[in-house]
Design a protein that fits this description.
By secondary structure, the chain is an alpha/beta fold. Helix 2 links the parallel strand 2 and strand 3. The radius of gyration is 20 Å and the shape is globular.
Length: about 325
């Protein structure tokens, strides 16, 4: 089967790299042609438009930064809808709005094709090594058809139910990750202010009940000074904003969510709209005069980390 991939950003490039590395017949596209150069050198083909890709590929994957970007690719001029047809699958791997996902999926399905949402979770370093987690929302037969590709891209795969369920769960997990990041920053700055060694603080966190995936990963990029988890504040605000909208629509009176949104909006004003998400710790470092780093602290897992063997495929709710 021929697979097309649109969106070669921080996550998309790594997912597309897994497809190419594992021998899939790959066509790529990005608004920045330079982003495609390594893939073309590796044997992938280039599509001049989403329509051309949909005409020539069996599976078309999108991994884009916003719902509006996805809408432009799917239903815009020379979009996927103009080229897709029976027997083909559109797979949306972006973190997006469930309602918008279902709206676009209906257009794809009206052309006789199938749709699946399969957002990923686990960070860019895991996307690079094929160890990322994937939520899949779709009909069960579509899930089975996509499973060979999903197993190439990730290791923990959960069928969450019908379209919309995966996107809803994904923004929930990103909301929790953001809450973990903010409390981690408060903990690390407070411990350094109290005279504790930052590296020792991190070790105490990761062996204790205070641990989290964010503490283990983003704690490292804070301490090594890079502050770069390959995720930016605008994306944080998009994701936690989507989660907050779900709560508002269902009359859930959240208290922490509005504060998190306020904190990251302030972070953008201070450090830039696309500042690294972990730069949010500077809001606490600057008024205290502290800089939370640990000289010589190791970098986060590298892109050439070997892939883990085996898969965890969970049936979830059968559609």
């Amino acid at each position: 089967m021929k697979v097309g991939f649109i969106g070669l950003g921080n996550v998309g490039a790594k997912l597309a790299g897994s497809l190419l590395r594992n021998g899939h017949d790959l066509t790529v596209r990005d608004l920045d042609p330079d982003a495609a150069a390594p893939f073309l050198e590796g044997g992938a083909r280039w599509a001049d438009s989403p329509r051309e890709m949909a005409e020539n590929c069996d599976v078309i994957i999108t991994c884009l930064p916003s719902p509006s970007a996805c809408a432009a690719v799917v239903e815009g001029p020379d979009g996927i809808v103009e080229g897709i047809g029976p027997g083909k699958i559109w797979a949306e791997m972006s973190t997006t709005d469930a309602g918008e996902l279902k709206r676009l999926a209906a257009k794809v399905e009206a052309m006789g094709a199938r749709a699946i949402e399969c957002p990923v979770s686990g960070g860019c370093h895991r996307a690079a090594t094929g160890n990322i987690s994937i939520f899949a929302g779709c009909e069960r037969d579509t899930f089975e058809a996509m499973l060979p590709f999903l197993k190439t891209l990730g290791r923990r795969i959960l069928h969450t139910g019908p379209l919309g369920t995966a996107s809803t769960l994904k923004v929930m997990t990103n909301y929790l990750a953001t809450a973990n990041l903010l409390t981690l920053c408060e903990a690390m700055v407070t411990m350094q202010a109290a005279g504790l060694d930052p590296a020792t603080t991190w070790e105490a966190i990761v062996i204790s009940s205070g641990n989290s995936f964010v503490a283990e990963t983003e704690g490292q990029v804070i301490l090594n000074g890079s502050r770069d988890i390959e995720f930016t504040m605008d994306l944080v605000l998009k994701d936690i904003g989507l989660f907050h909208r779900i709560a508002v629509e269902h009359d859930v009176p959240l208290e922490i969510s509005p504060l998190m949104i306020e904190i990251f909006k302030d972070g953008q004003k201070r450090y830039g709209l696309r500042a690294n998400s972990d730069d949010i710790i500077r809001r606490l470092e600057e008024p205290t005069g502290l800089h939370v780093v640990a000289p010589g602290f190791p970098a986060l897992l590298t892109d050439d980390e070997p892939e883990e063997e085996g898969y965890e495929i969970k049936p979830g709710n059968r559609a």
